[in-house]
Amino acid sequence: MTHRLTPPPALPAARRERMPKPRLLTAALLGLSLAVPLAGLLAAPAAHAQDAVSRSYDIAAAPLGTALSTFAAAAGITLSFNAEQTRGLQSAGLRGSYSVGAGLAQLLAGSGLEAIHRGGGNYVLQRVPQNRSESTLGEVKVSAQADSSATTEGTASYTTAGALTTSTKLSLSLRDTPQSLSILSRQRMDDQALNTLSDTLKQTAGVSVQNLGGERFSVYARGYTVDSYQFDGIPTTLDIVTQISAQSLADMAIYDRMEVLRGSTGLLTGAGDPSGTINLVRKRPTREFQAKVSASVGSWDLYRTEADIGGPLNEAGTLRGRLVGAYQRSGSYIDYLQQEKQVIYGVIEADLGEHTLLTAGIDHQRNDSDGTTTVGFPLFYSDGTQTDFKRSSTWAARWSNQQQEMTNAFLTLEHTLANRWQVKLAANQMRVERDYELGYASWGFPNKATGNGVKLYGGAGSTAQTQTGVDVLARGPFQLFGREHEMVLGYSSSLLQNEHNPLRGAGIEGRAINIYTWDNYTAEPAPVGKLYDGDTDVRQQGIYAAARFNATDDLSLIAGARSSRYRYKYSLKYALAASQRFNSVTQYKENDVITPYAGIVYRLDDIHSLYASYTSIFKPQSTRDRNGDLLKPREGNSYEAGLKSEFFGGRLNTSAAVYEIQQDNLAEVDPGQVVPGTTTSAYRAVEGARTRGIDLEASGELQPGWNLGASFSHSITRNADGDRIMTVMPKNMLKLFTTYQLPGAWQNLTVGGGMNWQSRIHFTATPTDLGRTVTAEQKAYATFDLMARYRITRQLSASLNINNLFDKKYLGALDTTFYSGYYGAPRNGSLKLDYSF
Known about the structure:
The protein is mainly β. The chain has a domain of about 550 residues: Beta Barrel (Maltoporin, Chain A), CATH 2.40.170. The longest helix is centred in the first third of the chain and has 12 residues. The radius of gyration is 27 Å and the shape is globular.
């Protein structure tokens, strides 16, 4: 039997943007980043010892899946595999003394399967490639793949037992990460037919999603909006002000999983909200051939197809590729709304040597919408009472349309040194273009009896945005005081450039309509020239360092810091002479902003860990006050403590956390005030804002074939006077979804269901056009979903999903900027056929 050790893959050399050199860190950070890793770089490489340890086993003959689970529990490893991989296969059992590798080889001998080592005690099953001789079927290939050990595809799991780098860039399991981190796995997305980012986030612990119209939505966590998105760990920023929202359009067909880190992430992102960050992790090429096609039909004329093919591109398997495509066309429960999207994704991996891996890829997505709107309906009648319309009502003209195209290219190069240190270079560039022609009712409040009192907003134009991110790091172990620790050093930069060019829409802007009689017919705008140029330029750079010190076998300490530079520029230039008095250039910069991070994890036993963490908050703001001035950056501190548990070798993860966020200069709507020269609501700064809450979550496998994702979150934000603010986010949320594969003769059938419940949301305002104080609310409500999947053959399966089973009518959003609302979707369903080759 041969054990082949392939160190973690390496990264590609990425195109470097010209950027000024960042200033040096403070002396403390320099000491940490230069002195501590020196010992690690000079230390001799440590051996991978776990596979060499022999233990005694007495496993009786049984179905292969049962035997493997028994072995994994006894060996203290995590072995991930899909029940379909072992269905119908038997094991002769295992008796005697074996190392992990030898034991797995014996159990898998003749099965056509092999165990791939993904780092630490994590293994995953895969079929033996056809180009390998029969004589090697028993081989256990150990190939530690950096940053892919947490892959969820093919594991049939709702969690991961692999190492994650989302919180600090250190390789940490869920249990060893001292912050709340949720995983939405590939299996979870498939079970619930979660094809859009919005739908996926709605199932995520502690996250509230509120649609604002069309493809635009806001995401809240821990009382604040989430605008930090990552693609494979490279940060991007969501800009919903100009309605260009590439991240929110993301189709989930191309992703292995979504990771949501709740809490402040300033160590990696620099300026950012204390709400969290969303990391979308792409699918990667497989080492063996695989292919899958699917077709779906659903409510409101939904038609969707997907194709996914991957595997080795040469006989040696050193060059691998993957191609994913999706096409979807659908109507909507909203009148006249039609949507179409096309998705294509390609990626290649190349082993440039035994220790070097190059990965390059690109994805492209086009979304076309007709009958679209970027805001919801008026929340109030002219008498101040809350409106109530049909869910199918639309406030857009039938000819309203917009097209968005996104291209995302990425490149990584990873190289592993002999001392187990890894050097990684990653780059990502996203280009988005949007063209639109819009007309929708958004000004004023209708008379309940007559329907008069509303005016149209309309026009046409285009927006283009480019975001470029680069991250360079070195990560690895080092020896200090007779113990092994881990260190990461890195440099990151990001550049956002946004160009907004609206046109003047003659004959549409401000046109009065009657909401009861206009029937969404109105003359289209006649663009007569540019209205203004609005250009945004945001640049960030930072140096970061973090170390995990293993003080004892059970106690680890994490310390880190980041030094950041931030540049913001917004240029507004009107085309019409009459409006040029509102021309402005707003600039803002910060140098050497230090963001510290500290965490502690104590392992109580082999299952439970206590943890605590701290980080600071720095967030520049683009909102303005009643004088037209930018609000000062938000600053504060974030604290978290909790208990994490890892059951059944990592197949079930649970967490319980308490947290507190303290902030100054938090933006709050200034009732009745607008920014000079605009109709945009003005904001004021809130001092002494404090958010306190708890997060509870369980995800994974309760027993073979029974998956669970469950969470409860509680969060309240108050100002210095103790009054509750940020009330458009629910105080309490409960989310539950579970599936169960029936045993025995019904083993081809999997059934499941879930519930999402949230408490009341509301806000109180004094709109200028209304002249009175009003309150909008959505009372507490729950929605229920069902699913079933039947495997017709080993390759063909059919799935049925029903959402909002009891057809609950509810407001999915309360928009405090336009005083508008948006209804959630009525009961709907879809049927999907999957065929695997």
